[in-house]
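User: Here's a chain of 303 residues. Predict its fold as tokens.
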Amino acid sequence: MNTVFEVLTYNILPIFVVAGLGFWLRRYFLVDKQTVSSIVFYALSPCLVFSSLINSALPVAELGQLAGFTVIFVLALGGLTLVAGRLLRLDRRDTVTLMLVVMFVNSANYGITFNQLRYGDEGVTRAIVYYFTSTVLIFTLGIFIASMGQMDARTALRNLLRLPPLYAVAFALLVYGFQVTLPSPLLRAVEIAGAGAIPVMLLLLGMQMADMPGWGGMGFIVPAVTLRMVVGPLVGFGLALLLGLDQLGLAVSVAQAGMPTAVMVIILATQYDLRPAEVTGTVVITTLASVISLPLVIYFFGL
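Assistant: Prediction complete.
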């Protein structure tokens, strides 16, 4: 199932159908997006992270390898974008904005779901490693970049310590490492909650898109989309080969590297006054462009 059409219909189209339901719910029924986001972030997402790691046979060495890929990939893209910003003669504010929209991707509601549809439960486990690692990075490195080095270190640490997935992973590693047997009813309850995370994430993606007001100048958006959707997968593929990831790990990592810009970047851009209109436009266009770009990435790299 490697043709562009098959990837589009079997792996991409279902994501946009469910996200479309979220778009419809937000536009016509005014469903509270913040409440849904809190449910995903504080309840369903940690359960998904925990149950996926506990039920996987992912070796610790491979987990570290996948996490290392994420860190190196994000830093590499940041460096390339910094160079691109200087070549384009962007000012400091626009360079910082460009770095954020290129470095951080929608690895959760879009990335995890795509990898589940494409690679099954084993794909989800590996996609979650990218999601968790990038979440830590966006709440530390992302905030640091957005504030241009003027952030309060204690505030950044407090934000990090408030992330439920952080504790879910820490607890899962302890349980996995010490071979602790959890009570079956408890484990089953966590699995049920985790199973609900992905569809609700997709509904939330549609709700977020319904609230996006539009975008500003294309002079910023065109290089941002090019770096995110073209350069990103190329760098991801080369890095995955360099790190010696196995076939499935390489496929999932490259797919995550080709995801559209994270909606969370809009929040950072608004908070730090980093051209939020242009950032919103980049998120919308990269999400729509992924309908074409992701099948092409899968096809050309044989994933």
